[in-house]
Design goal:
Elements lengths: L4 H29 L4 H6 L9 H10 L2 H9 L1 E2 L9 H16 L3 H5 L5 E6 L2 E6 H26 L6 H5 L7
Parallel strand pairs: 1-2
Antiparallel strand pairs: 2-3
Helix pairs in contact: 1-5, 1-7, 3-5, 3-7
Length: 172
């Protein structure tokens, strides 16, 4: 059996969005129990030259739900600048899970083979939907989800590998 566009995109996004929601919840609980201000976490950076925690979570949302929206519309652009607090970031992850969870496999699979492009100002990169998902969206999605996890670990949040992996898709 061939793997479908839905399996490689939406099913994968949902798994890691679920784990990201859990990681964010554990982060909020840990912060409350340890007197760590959530605004400080939202603004935190691993390094001065890296984007803050806030950007990482927005990028998880953008490279999942935004990627599918872009595939549907034929164009993907950099994420919008969203000024959200910790709860707002949690809301973005929930929004992505809800909207992606409502898609049918057929809706997503029907996008396979369609042309789309990444556009940032005058810079454009042409893709097919599946090449965009596999070579651009998923690597970015995993990078930002991992960085979100790492930044919360840096704050002391007790997280492990299974927290990152989330609900595995296992044979029944």
């Amino acid at each position: 059996m061939a793997i479908s566009l839905y399996d490689t995109s939406v099913a994968t996004y949902l798994q890691i969005l679920g784990s990201t929601a859990n990681i964010l919840e554990k982060g909020a609980v840990y912060a409350a129990e340890n007197g760590i201000g959530l605004p400080g976490i939202v603004a935190s950076r691993l390094r001065d030259d890296m984007n803050p925690f806030h950007f990482q979570v927005v990028s998880v949302w953008h490279h999942s739900l935004g990627a599918i929206r872009g595939a549907r519309e034929g164009i993907f652009t950099p994420p919008p600048s969203l000024d959200l607090d910790y709860a707002g970031l949690q809301g973005l992850v929930a929004e992505a899970s809800k909207e992606l969870g409502a898609l049918t496999e057929q809706e997503v699979n029907d996008m396979a083979g369609n042309a789309m492009k990444f556009k940032a100002g005058d810079f454009e990169v042409p893709f097919t939907v599946e090449d965009f998902i596999l070579s651009f969206s998923l690597p970015n999605f995993y990078f930002h989800a991992t960085t979100t996890y790492d930044m919360l670990r840096m704050q002391g949040v007790p997280l492990g590998k299974m927290d990152f992996l989330g609900a595995l898709r296992v044979a029944s």
